[in-house]
Amino acid sequence: MTLAEGAELDIESLVEHLSKRLARYKVPRTYFWVDSLPRNALGKVQHFLHCGTIWVHGHSVEVPTTESAPRSPFGDYGIRKAAIERYLIREAESGFPATVLHPGHLVGPGWNPINPQGNFNPEVFATLARGEELALPNLGMETVHHVHADDVARAFVCALQQREAALGQAFHVVSPRALTLRGYAERTSEWLGQKPRLRFVPYDEWKSAVGERDARVTYDHISHSPNCSIEKASALLGYTPRYTSLAAIQECIAHLRP
Question: Which of 5, 105, 179, 244 has the fewest CB atoms within 10 Å distance of its CB?
Answer without folding.
Answer: 5
